[in-house]
Structure formats: structure tokens, C-alpha cells
Write a structure and sequence with these properties.
single chain; alpha+beta; Glutaredoxin; four-stranded mixed beta sheet; 4 helices; 6 strands
Length: about 160
């Protein structure tokens, strides 16, 4: 299986097939609006802007599993746009850990386990880099800033 085998819902509740992103390099991130790492939205948007003419997309997935994303879908959309100018796709709030984790995140964590093989997501802003074939290439820790991922994105776009 690849990331293309899953469906997700936008912040507006519209179902989207991940296969719509076929042939693109993806950076999939679990996000939160009230986290100490929230300023990473700026760097994520900078990556989106830098590679706007390339087959690349940042995809944001809010989660309240760490009690830092309490807002509604409208609140999340407004916050991301007003504070960070986010133009990349944001999806509805999901769980990223446990038995209620969204199937996409179950797949991501299985394909790219964390430290010591842990499948759990440790915190907000864990990032997964996916190649143009829908395969998970790498997992990045929450504190890894988006600019540190740029070289890996460029390598996949070659």
C-alpha cells in the first residue's frame, strides 16, 4: 500500500482521495495551532512557496491528541491563514496515535517508525516525506524545522 490508497477530508469536510497527489513529493505534517512549535507553519509555507513550480505539496493535518488544537475547522483555517498565510491544503482534525488514529497516519507511522522503532507520534509537527510514488521516505522529529528538510525535497524532485 501507498499513501494513495487513503481518503481524507478537508477542513470544509470534502472527501479527497490521496491519489489526487500522485506524482508529487509530499510533506505530510500533524499540526496544532496552540503549540510551541506552531511557528513552523511559517517555514512550511516557505517550502510550499519555494517549490510552487515543482510537483511538491505540503499537507497539514491538525490533531488535538496533545491538547493543543481545540478550535473548530473554521478556527483552524482562519488561524493558519491570518497568522501564517497558509495556502497549502489543511485537512480536518484527526487522531494520529492509538486505535482511533486516521488510517493514513497508521500507514505513515508503520512505514517510517520513530526512535527505537516506535510507531507513536511523539508530538505535534512530526513530518513525513513521501516520494512521487506514494512511498514514505523519511520521518522527521517535531523539532526538525522545515528548512532542514529542503535538501531532501530537492533530492526527490531531481
Amino acid at each position: 500500500m501507498t499513501v494513495y490508497d487513503y481518503k481524507v477530508n478537508t477542513l470544509r469536510g470534502q472527501e479527497v482521495e490521496m491519489s489526487n497527489y500522485r506524482d508529487k513529493v509530499l510533506l505530510i505534517v500533524n499540526t496544532a495551532s496552540q503549540c510551541g512549535l506552531t511557528p513552523q507553519f511559517k517555514g512550511l509555507q516557505e517550502l510550499q512557496d519555494k517549490f510552487k513550480d515543482s510537483p511538491f505539496e505540503v499537507l497539514g493535518f491538525p490533531s488535538n491528541q496533545f491538547a493543543q488544537e481545540k478550535g473548530s475547522s473554521d478556527d483552524i483555517a482562519d488561524f493558519c491563514q491570518m497568522n501564517y498565510g497558509v495556502s497549502f491544503p489543511m485537512f480536518e482534525k484527526i487522531d494520529v496515535n492509538g486505535s482511533s488514529a486516521h488510517p493514513l497516519f497508521q500507514h505513515l507511522t508503520k512505514e517510517a517508525p520513530g526512535v527505537l522503532g516506535s510507531k507513536a507520534i511523539k508530538w505535534n509537527f512530526t513530518k513525513f516525506l513521501v516520494d512521487q510514488n506514494g512511498r514514505v521516505v523519511k520521518r522527521y522529529a517535531p523539532k526538525t524545522t522545515p528548512d532542514k528538510i529542503e535538501a531532501d525535497i530537492k533530492a526527490l524532485l531531481k
